[in-house]
Amino acid sequence: MNTVFEGEHLLPGQLGHLGVITIFIASLISAIAYFISTNKKDEAEQNSFLKVGRWAFVAMAVGVLTTFFSLFFIIYNHYFEYHYAWRHSSLELPVHYMISCFWEGQEGSFLLWMFWQMMLGLVLIRTAKKWEAPVVSVIAFSQFFLASMLLGIYVFDFKIGSNPFTLLRDVMSNAPIFKRGNYLSMITDGNGLNPLLQNYWMVIHPPVLFLGFASTVVPFAYAIAGWWKNDFDGWTKAVWPWALFSGVALSTGIMMGAAWAYEALSFGGYWAWDPVENASIMPWLTLIAGIHTLLAYRHSDHAQKATYVLLGLSFLLVLYASFLTRSGILGESSVHAFTDLGLGGQLVFNIIAFIIPFIFLFIFRFKNVQEPGKEEKVESREFWMFIGALVFLVSLFQITFTTSIPVFNKLLGTNWAPPTNAIQHYNKIQVWIAILIGLLVSFTQYLRYKSSDVKSFLKEIAINSIVASIIAGFCIWYFEISVIAYWFMMLAAIFAIIFNLKYLYKLKKNFINWGGSIAHVGFGLMLVGILISSYKQKVITSNSPTSGLMGKGFDETMKRENMLLMKNTTEKLQGYEITYVGDSTSAPNTYYKVQYVKRNADSSIAERFFLYPNIQENKKMGSVNNPSTRHYFTKDIYTIVTATADKKKADAPVNQKDYKFYKLKKGDTINLKGTKIIFQSISNEVLRKDVVVQSGDVAASIRCKVYNANNSFNTESVYLIRNSMAVPIEDKVNELGIRIFVNQIIPTENSIELGIAETEPVVDYITLKALEFPYINLLWIGTIVVILGFLISIFKRIKLK
User: Fold this and answer.
1) pLDDT of 608-640, one tens digit each?
2) What is the pLDDT of residues 157-174, one digit of tens each?
3) How many angstroms separate the Cα of 134 from the Cα of each of 47, 137, 212, 298?
4) What are phi and psi of 610, to 5 degrees?
5) How far apart are CA 91 and CA 277, in angstroms?
């Protein structure tokens, strides 16, 4: 109790926690003031509470920035007296990975979420006009709940939030080290960033994804505001650009995650139906469906109730996704989930707090929504857009139900097991979902709102259908697709591309209306990329001539799909000659240089390139294998090192008695069993990079050639005199098991004495797995095209407004 702790930096943590309290109080005041302003009929009273709400929101924004920068300041300056900094960072991390440390933990990710909601709220204060009070009230209410996740206080036995500014000695108060006032002198480094997250994608992917998550609150708030104020038409006009913005932000964030998984992670793909991946796509499905029903309503007055439900569900599913990934309920079923901080109950309460007003308004305002008395006609565009929304909901149902199996087990006491083969389980439904959506985005644009001339419609799409069918048939033949479901998927994808390209031609110079069709073309390209890269993906190291040489730890499948490469030995691989050249270390990564060569018929080199897969060593969290990829337009060559030689044997100490000593003059040869050593030269110039010659040192570099019938190596042993003492520095040839050091230099005899030890040879090798992903660039190009379509649509809405 009376210990005085030395060297602690308490001010940043105090400022940060003060910022959290400011957010918590100011956001509640803002939400209440805006709520009262919305319900006041007197204009003067409305404006009075409106000003209070604005200033409270601004105060909340100051609190967010204070908290945000305080936490980063603590991480950047390595203040390991704070548990968050100690747990997520270390001294070796460069600045960009310190940024990643910020949102690796739950508290930092909540703060990132709050930052984006704060920014969106400030924009709405300036632009929302009559919708400011009800909309910002909802956003401030959301900020209030997010701030509560960072409070870190107890009310009786109930924990409210987790404070990111908690001191390490408070979290680990029972550890003996914290009974000493100078405990910081004994904490030399932090725990470090998870090696899986030490990638540039971790710097850019989470901010974009959380912008997408945060942005879903705006369509939700407009939906609540419209039904709250009984302005059932007005909110649908105001929400348009925000729904599109949320769509593009969430789409970009999700696909960035897919690119990260493909470029950096080791499971060899871009989507594995991991529960956390599923949690991100669930709100996207309802958001995209809601955008389309909103479009249908704006042109036909149909589907406003569906739009309210879909846009509202998007935000509620973000909250549910947060519960899944942060409550610990996913257990070991996902490698992406956050560590459980005991906030599961609070997360559930957060969901309930928003579900109640959402359902309440739906029940009590349902009858007030004026929609046309007649049902949509089958030949109308809005009918098929509504069908498309239902298809998205079917997709959502399968994904949500399966992902929620751990939740059902918790609630019902059951013991259902998640699917053992997740990809097969999801794909058997989602493939048909993709087919239906592909067909719907093909022909729906050729229909008119409210009613269409069926004969004209059929005539217009007939030629498109013939052309698309021929192209799809050619693709099915060319890529040798034998699965019937994939025939239809290819057909639907080509239909989406051809039909929408033709529709763009119809629009011609009317650029402002291109958004939807361009996004649909991009969706078609994505489907083609997904289909071909997945169906035709192949392990090109399969059945390699040396595949059976792998050691322990490799099952039969791994032996079959991996290739063993001895250093500087060339093997043939699917039209390439592949060689393991060597490795280099830039702590904590070891990079393995692999050369690929493709030859012409006359054996001349047609192409040569190098890949550098790496292994990141982390003693605390285990090693991580990262791939390296060669990109072509038509394919990718994806390479990952799966095992390496144990070089620790080469560093094992050798007993002095194992050395034999030889006196040599320049050009003399030592004949060992199967190995020869020639003393080539002696020089004052030291070339070895690992030997540092200091001022005052006297150094001699002794170079020898070591060879046998198969290999030849050059060595450089260094004889160093430092502070009048001899410091011999040995060199070694691990492949031949030879160690050489200079025992003495004899100037009077123009000779040297070498100490040579023969040890067990250590063979340098790697095993690697190489995959070919054909036409995967169509997926990434399609993604960019989809986002471009969204941006054009946003531009159109802003311009029209």
Assistant:
1) 999 999 888 777 666 788 889 999 999 999 999
2) 777 888 999 999 888 888
3) 13, 5, 21, 22
4) -120, 140
5) 31
Look at residues 293, 201, 183, 228 and name the one whose alpha carbon lies nearest to residue 34: 228
Exposure on the CB side of residue 779, measured as CA atoms within 13 A: 20
Convert the pLDDT of each residue in 351-397 to its tens digit.
Answer: 999 999 999 999 999 988 887 777 788 888 889 999 999 999 999 99
CA 760 to the chain's CA centroid: 43
**58: phi then psi, degrees, rounded to nearest 5:** -65, -40
Separation CA 700–CA 685 (nearest Å): 7
For residue 224, the tally of other CB atoms under 10 A from its CB is 26
Whether 736 and 675 have beta carbons less than 8 Å apart is answered as: yes
Residue found by looking up tokens 């992917």 in the block: 205
Residue 732, C-beta contacts closer than 8 angstroms, at least 6 positions apart: 650, 715, 738, 739, 740
Report the C-alpha gap between 199 and 201 in whole angstroms: 5
At 93, phi and psi to the nearest 5? -75, 135
Q: State how far the Cα of 290 lies from the Cα of 222, in Å rounded to an integer.
A: 13
- DSSP for 389-438 reads HHHHHHHHHHHHHHHTHHHHHHHH---PPPPSSHHHHHHHHHHHHHHHHH
User: What gap in Å lies between CA 730 and CA 735, rounded to an integer?
Assistant: 16
CA of 230: how far to CAs of 88, 144, 367, in Å? 48, 26, 11
Q: Is 586 helix (H, G, I), strand (E, B) or coil?
A: strand
Burial class for 178, CB neighbours closer than 10 Å (0-12, 13-18, 19+): middle
Q: Report yes or no: 638 and 627 within 8 Å, Cβ to Cβ.
A: yes
Q: Which residues of 574-604 are buried (b: 16+ CB within 10 A; e: fewer)?
A: eebebbbeebeeeebbbbbebbbeeeeeeee
Q: Are 87 and 105 in contact (CB under 8 A)?
A: yes
Would you state the structure tokens that stand for residue 299, as one six-digit string? 């042109």
Report d(CA 163, CA 84) in Å as an integer: 9
**Model confidence at 439, in pLDDT bands (50, 70, 90)?**
very high
Structure tokens at 373: 């008395």
Conformation bin of residue 736: beta by default, left when phi > 0, alpha when psi is -120 to 50: alpha
> What's at 549, amino acid-wise?
L
Give whole-number Cα distances, 409 to 129, 172, 339, 347, 415, in Å.
47, 33, 20, 18, 6
Find where tokens 């149902």 sit. Answer: 397
CA distance 628 to 641: 9
Distance CA 675, CA 666 (A): 18
> Given the structure tokens 């003996």, which residue do they identify?
176
